[in-house]
């Protein structure tokens, strides 16, 4: 039988993994692999794993059970399927994965995806390959760039990794161990990647990194540039209408970054800024390297330069030794900031992290009760935030068609999903297309979306406009 080999990549966790999965697919496209969304059709199945959430490794092993059944079924019809585990669980577990799941042929850590073609070549029958080193070469130089077609298929909004790894060592977090030390890409390479994306029709770029605002990549003169400076360069790329960045550490919100929120209209007024706790005692136990006062000061400085700035955050409740008073400090912090949304979790120990050895865990029922209380406050704030836009207008970048005929879906500057029903006929409502930025007046709210109608002015469009999906 002829035809291209097929690869199925299943991505877990954060945007970094989504970006990495795309770059793996691009690199494998150069080896003759076409991507398939159907694992049963694939000759190569890659699980790109995440180690952040509880029982991450257990979830990977149960997924591998399903993959093994596909592999066995393929073998019965004479087809060989290669199974690879990538991402942070691969880095953390290494050879243990192959010991517990012999169906796995390849274990590859996040710093080694550039080696994929060579690693796949080394897989012989019955010989598993493991690559979890932290090599000195720049993996981004070796990973293949996506074709314009692949970029278009991924939509008008793209992630670009500018920084990897973390030197902060929060006591609950595995990232410094699985992703290694902080490493920033040079400014010229980031800008070149954004130019390629823009030429293929991308209109919004989110610069990503585990600790993105610790960015210190080589600038044009050889000296390191901070994220604020990088954002200025990226904002100059023609066709890029919107910029975002994530995930940030409150301790790294330096002046040039705050000034960029004042000076760059393309930089959207929404920031995900994890705080984890509102108690200084718990922040110190977490080794967060910032205080409650510092966090509130960063929020105030950003609001001074950009008054409509909206914030989301991350919270861990029930960190070892957390008292009711500590927890209440988190609730008062949330009230002081006023959030557009948040991710919140009960603390659970990650093996190998310092906090995992604590002798004073918070009982499970207390953690559960605190999480519910915290989530009630956040839900109320999110609802209030969304409701504050009823009857108001803002610009929406349209990303995709909706589920209903004539519906088009986009994002507000504050990252809310906005749905618009296009009118029949020849008015502005019918003219708007994916990739356009257009003013929308909000007319209705639901739990997860805003609904609106297009204002009368013509949408802003760019020459490299994408065709609507399926068109
Ligand atoms: S700053 Fe973020 S990525 Fe780094 S150790 Fe802390 S929680 Fe983990």
Protein described:
- By secondary structure, the chain is α/β, with parallel strands linked by helices.
- The chain has 16 helices and 19 strands.
- A hairpin with a 5-residue loop joins strand 16 and strand 17.
- Helix 10 packs parallel to helix 11 and helix 14 packs parallel to helix 15.
- It binds iron/sulfur cluster.
Helix and strand layout, with pairings?
Blueprint lengths: L4 E7 L3 H15 L3 E3 L8 E6 L6 H21 L5 E5 H7 L1 H6 L5 E3 L7 H7 L6 E3 L7 H4 L5 H6 L3 E5 L1 E2 L10 H4 L4 E2 L2 H13 L4 E5 L18 H9 L6 E5 L8 H9 L6 E3 L7 H6 L6 H14 L4 E8 L6 H14 L3 E6 L17 H24 L5 E9 L5 E5 L5 E5 L6 H4 L5 E9 L4 E5 L17
Parallel strand pairs: 1-2, 1-3, 3-4, 4-5, 5-6, 7-10, 10-11, 12-13, 13-14, 17-19
Antiparallel strand pairs: 8-9, 15-16, 15-18, 16-17, 18-19
Helix pairs in contact: 10-11, 14-15
End-to-end separation in angstroms reads 31 Å
Major sheet size, sense and barrel closure: 6 strands, parallel
Shape: globular
Computed structural class: alpha/beta
Residue share in helices?
Answer: 25-40%
Bound molecules: iron/sulfur cluster
Question: Could you give the order of strands across the largest sheet?
Answer: 2-1-3-4-5-6
Structure keywords:
single chain, 471 residues, alpha/beta, five-stranded mixed beta barrel, 16 helices, 20% strand, binds iron/sulfur cluster
What's this entry about, in short?
The chain has about 475 residues and is α/β, with parallel strands linked by helices.
